[in-house]
Amino acid sequence: MRPKIRLFVDQPLGQGQPLALTREQSNYLFAVMRLAVGAEVAVFNGRDGEWRARVTQANKKNGALACEEQTAPQVTPPDLWLFFAPIKKARTDFIVEKAAEMGARRIVPVQTDFTNSERIRQDRLQAHAVEAAEQCGTTFVPEVTDLQPLSAVLDHWPDGRRLMFCDEARVGETAGLPPREGAAGPWAILIGPEGGFSEGERTRLGALDFAHTVALGPRILRADTAAVAAMTLWQMQLGDWA
Amino acid sequence: MRPKIRLFVDQPLGQGQPLALTREQSNYLFAVMRLAVGAEVAVFNGRDGEWRARVTQANKKNGALACEEQTAPQVTPPDLWLFFAPIKKARTDFIVEKAAEMGARRIVPVQTDFTNSERIRQDRLQAHAVEAAEQCGTTFVPEVTDLQPLSAVLDHWPDGRRLMFCDEARVGETAGLPPREGAAGPWAILIGPEGGFSEGERTRLGALDFAHTVALGPRILRADTAAVAAMTLWQMQLGDWA
């Protein structure tokens, strides 16, 4: 029986390795969940797989665990990045959470011509990604970067990475991903803000040889819905769902 | 140029047809958006397509419009129902909103062995579906039913409708939809609650000849993510995205 509680710990994991818990984790385990010494918890650090750990110190402010045994190998999802334009707070949180569940490797908030946000709380979004990873049973946590201007992202596009450009203006058209053969390798998905992309952005994106424009069905999707739908199509056709 | 504001009105639409607005709609158009007599609004009723209407009475409590011209035909999405187990309030609202965006024709909250909710606010969920339809540009509004026990739903399953059963316990397996040929016709999707289905439910569902078990990738998805992912796969393979 696997432990019910999964925790991300940013420390090396290995046989007998002692693990210090943060104040927040200690409070959760020992004040909220009322675990005692000897109780089992699953832990992962994003690099060393999942381990069974046992409570050695049930202190509500600074508890500790000891690693016992690896219960799952490290699995890193396919090389998919998600670029999205931050929207209202709750929906931005949802997009980060969903990107972690759907197996994005990196999550990049981008500032577009029609983006409302001038800044984001990177630390808060990263914490959402950690929480989603704890819940969805993955051993990997995607990195959430700081807000970057879309133009700068495109200026410094990495060699060999393809872009699935989800263009709201093409609602109702059929445009899909290239077939798996010949389309392996690193990819990114770009989801626009409410109101879509500007004419200038669409023209630039349409002319990029690494960009594949994709239409997401006949109805306009909100940005968070579009993000999940796009990641589903990608994972099914080119990623780890197939 | 299409009007920016889209409103659902539960009245017949046609050339010259006068439309009475609800108090809430009047407040939105004339107090919040400050429209004046002569302004244009897009309206739909779920049956007669989309029409351009013009403000004839800009009263904040009981305004009125007149229908002028049909701007889009009625489009009813493919015959897909979504059954889901209600979860926390915010996520239940999201599932209804996403089901409308993704083109579900009917949305049915079901009570399963592990469902927390004893009841739902059907009127509030229906209002969410209307709002989502207004935003996503569709001319159709899915019906949200009252909460129904899963066992009763299966007892009275309609002839000829197939079921895409998204089984959380099969995470990591590959199980897909049948190919388009031979799988046309009415379908439903079933998404479980957090904690999945009970052994009894899984046994019953697995034995139904109209049920196709589908695995949604290698990570555990929250119910709202699973709903969008499942509807994406269905619309792409069997629905109106292809």
Automatic annotation (TrEMBL), chains A, B:
The keyword Transferase applies. Keywords: Cytoplasm, Methyltransferase, rRNA processing, S-adenosyl-L-methionine, Transferase. One of its GO terms (molecular function) is rRNA (uridine-N3-)-methyltransferase activity. Residues 21-62 form the Ribosomal RNA small subunit methyltransferase E PUA-like domain. This is Ribosomal RNA small subunit methyltransferase E. Pfam families: Methyltrans_RNA, PUA_4. Its main location: cytoplasm. CDD domains: RsmE-like (cd18084). It catalyses: uridine(1498) in 16S rRNA + S-adenosyl-L-methionine = N(3)-methyluridine(1498) in 16S rRNA + S-adenosyl-L-homocysteine + H(+). GO terms for biological process: rRNA base methylation. Belongs to the RNA methyltransferase RsmE family. InterPro entries: Alpha/beta_knot_MTases, PUA-like_sf, RsmE, RsmE_MTase_dom, RsmE_PUA-like, tRNA_m1G_MTases_N. The keyword Hydrolase does not apply. Residues 78-235 form the Ribosomal RNA small subunit methyltransferase E methyltransferase domain. NCBIfam families: PRK11713.3-5, RsmE family RNA methyltransferase. Its EC number is 2.1.1.193. It is found in: Cytoplasm. Gene3D superfamilies: 3.40.1280.10, Hypothetical PUA domain-like, domain 1. One of its GO terms (cellular component) is cytoplasm. Coiled coil: none annotated. Specifically methylates the N3 position of the uracil ring of uridine 1498 (m3U1498) in 16S rRNA. Acts on the fully assembled 30S ribosomal subunit. It comes from Allosediminivita pacifica. The lineage of its organism: Bacteria, Pseudomonadati, Pseudomonadota, Alphaproteobacteria, Rhodobacterales.
